[in-house]
Amino acid sequence: MEITLKIDGMMCSGCEKRVHNALMALSGVTAAEVSHEKGTAVVTTDGTVEKSALETAVLNQGYDIVG
Predict the structure, then answer these.
(1) 13-24 vs 51-59: helix axis angle to the nearest 10?
(2) pLDDT in tens, 4-59
(3) Pair 23, 65: CB distance under 8 Å
(4) Dist CA 12 CA 30 (whole Å)
(5) Which residue in 46, 19, 54 sits closest to 35, CA to CA?
(6) For residue range 1-13, what is the model confidence (pLDDT) as tens digits?
(7) Cα gap 9→39, rounded to integer Å
(8) Based on the number of CB atoms within 10 Å of its own CB, is 24 exposed (0-12), middle (13-18) or buried (19 or more)?
């Protein structure tokens, strides 16, 4: 299952890495492609992860979810 999150506040590759690591730490996440330029994270899961858990992981890193 693929879930796209729109993220506000990422400004550099360091931001991308923080969000990527936070998402990959969640059980059930198999891949995460994060882009500060696009303001997105495309997350691939095994279907057991709720979108709200992904959003919480991003919020806990200090970034906002938009849309």
Answers:
(1) 140
(2) 999 999 999 999 999 999 999 999 999 999 999 999 999 999 999 999 999 999 99
(3) no
(4) 23
(5) 19
(6) 999 999 999 999 9
(7) 8
(8) middle
pLDDT at 67: 76
Helix (H) or strand (E) holding 8: strand 2-8
> Residue holding tokens 């709720």?
50
Give the three-state DSSP class for 5: strand
Which tokens in the block code for residue 11? Answer: 């400004």
The DSSP secondary structure of 29-62, one letter per residue, reads EEEEEEETTTTEEEEEE-S-S-HHHHHHHHHTTT
Instruction: Fill in the amino acid letter for 30.
Output: T
Q: How many angstroms separate the CA atoms of 34 and 40, rounded?
A: 6
Residue with tokens 């997350």: 43
